[in-house]
User: Fold this.
Amino acid sequence: MHLKTVGKYIRRSPYQSLAAVLIMILTMFMISIFSILTILSIRLIDYFEQSPQLTLFFKEEAKVDQIMNIKEQYESTGKISSIKYVSKEDALKIYNKLFEKENPILLDLVTSDVLPASIEIQAQKAEHLEELAGMVEGNELIDSIAYQKDIIDTFISWVNVFKTIGIAVIGVLVVTAILVILSIIAFKIVVRRDEIEIMKLIGATNWFVRTPFIFEGMFYGFVGAIVGWFLSLGILFYATPFIQSSLKGIPIFPIPTILLAEVLVGQIILACILGAFASFLAVLRYLK
Assistant:
């Protein structure tokens, strides 16, 4: 009974209904994109934290035997899972492999003499990185130290900025969606005021009259969540090859289907609640 009434209300004012659906699609699309990017960010941070690495770059005057002594010191700590010496020649091979396809012109500009020798250390735990880096702090042979704590901290700071901006944008869209649906439902109530009065005269209760309007708001939210989710999924599939090439093989794809399904279910629930809430505010204000 109520669903038929909802369908009748939507058919009678299709343009207002379309406006409500579009604002919900936009809102749910942004929430879906934000959720997917958050999932990817978490997977990327987990990758770095589960693969803690420390790289020591040596100065030009460092001798191979001196580097090997430092390597042995690290091996004796019992806190590393692997350690690898990268000579100047090895560094040149890595450099050539990275740029031979993207920018081959750069290959002729770099020789092994300008690249530093290094040691790549894989720590057993991320919390060991700072201690391992401190072992050679002040050593005159060390030119620079790079370890993933810096990368993780920088990335987390950017993620926090992204979350702040994303939450602000989504908050504005949610408020806008509520106001738009509230206005549309209020307009429909005013247009059908005579019809509502007749229904009350023949014994209809307040909630019998209000329920179709609330269901209508939930319908807008449901359609918006479904369409917004599919749009974000399409963009994800389109952007996946570009993201993978930028991450140089870091395995954050594919996103498990169960996670995407949870995002969809969460959006549907949220969108239906928003639609119902906006409609409820409208019927409280305009339907006495």
In short: Residues 53-124 form a domain with the Alpha-Beta Plaits fold (CATH 3.30.70.3040).
